[in-house]
Design goal:
This protein has ten helices and 15 strands. Strands 1, 2, 3, 4, 5 and 11 form a six-stranded mixed beta sheet that branches. Strands 8-7-9-6-10 form a five-stranded mixed beta sheet. Strands 13-14-12-15 form a four-stranded antiparallel beta sheet, with helices on one face. With 317 residues, the protein is of the alpha/beta class. Helix content is 27%, strand content 28%. It folds into three domains: 101 residues, D-Maltodextrin-Binding Protein, domain 2; 79 residues, 3-Layer(aba) Sandwich (D-Maltodextrin-Binding Protein, domain 2); 110 residues, 2-Layer Sandwich (Alpha-Beta Plaits).
Length: 317
């Protein structure tokens, strides 16, 4: 297997990738952005890509949501990983906290340390970086344009030439980032009972009730939405798609039935995969929506055709 991930070496994304069995021994290809990771997957230079998709503080990672929405049906999310996020402020050995005037890091990291910066270095400016690790390693280059960077403790430990000016500077000490492993031509993992399914659903028409038509496909089948976010398609003002996570697996009768309903009202729906939940939380399903209820309903309808369905109707499911 060849894996690609948002690099350079030492990012939280690499930490997520290293939890995948066999990834430590496999070829790992760091890239500069999420779109670059998925491009490597499309071109065949990699077999799977680990990318950040959601943060407990900032919500969805828009670069990932947009890039994944552009994939075709041959790509699947096969795994999710949750990584607790802790930040440190690093600089050159001769730099003190008082010397810091400009700080660089990834935008999602900056959003998670804003309060600490406002309290401890309110005069400091911010320079966006491609990643937390990239910003920190940039300090090792001359004239990088900033005095300090925010990164993971692991990267700081791996590079003793960087001086840690402050530890555990995150505003939320329980912050977690969710990563997903996207693979090409992958087989859908078997259901575990604690599963998640990710979908991209374009809004078929901008009209009253259009979103309700989509959401009813889940509510009437007892399916919980664990995440829903809207993103512009870029086609024109007001054109949006919805990135959605639901509790359940493609092999669950209630999920299959919901997908049929979704395809009727939004034929452009994209199935991105069913995979085990990282937190192993089992979805609660009311008896009216469990497998036996769907089987019983199907059998009852079939019993209404005691002589079998006419040939002209047999193509209907």
């Amino acid at each position: 297997m060849r894996y690609t991930f948002l690099g350079p070496v030492g990012t939280f994304t690499e930490a997520a990738l290293l939890t995948v069995p066999g990834a430590r021994e496999a070829e790992r290809i760091p890239v500069s952005s999420v779109p670059a990771a998925l491009d490597a997957l499309r071109s065949g230079r990699a077999d799977a890509a680990m990318v950040p998709i959601e943060n407990s503080v900032e919500g969805g990672v828009t670069a990932t949501l947009d890039a994944i929405a552009a994939l075709d049906g041959s790509f699947r999310i096969v795994r999710e990983v949750l990584v607790p996020i802790t930040f440190v402020l690093v600089a050159d050995p001769g730099t003190t906290l008082a010397d810091v005037q400009t700080i660089s890091t990834h935008t999602h990291a900056w959003a998670q340390v804003r309060n600490w910066v406002a309290q401890n270095k309110p005069e400091a400016g911010y320079l966006p970086g491609s990643s937390t690790a990239g910003a920190a390693l940039g300090l090792l280059q001359q004239n990088c344009g900033y005095d300090a960077a925010i990164c993971s403790p692991a990267l700081a430990e791996a590079h003793p030439e960087l001086k840690v000016l402050a530890h555990n500077i995150g505003d939320n000490k329980r912050a977690v980032t969710r990563f997903v492993l996207v693979a090409r031509d992958a087989v859908t993992p078997e259901p575990t009972g604690a599963d998640k399914t990710t979908l991209v659903i374009p809004l078929p028409q901008d009209r009253p009730g259009a979103l309700l038509d989509l959401l009813e496909q889940f509510s009437t089948r007892g399916i919980n939405l664990s995440r829903i976010e809207s993103r512009p398609t870029g086609e024109f003002l007001g054109a949006y798609f919805f990135s959605i996570d639901i509790d359940g697996h493609l092999y669950d009768a209630r999920v299959r039935d919901a997908l049929r309903g979704l395809h009727r009202v939004a034929p452009g729906v994209l199935f991105l995969g069913s995979y085990p939940r990282a937190d192993q939380r089992v979805a609660r399903v009311d008896p009216v929506h469990d497998e036996s209820s769907f089987d019983a309903a199907r059998s009852w309808v079939e019993s209404l055709f005691p002589g079998g369905r006419p040939d002209s109707l047999k193509h209907h499911i």
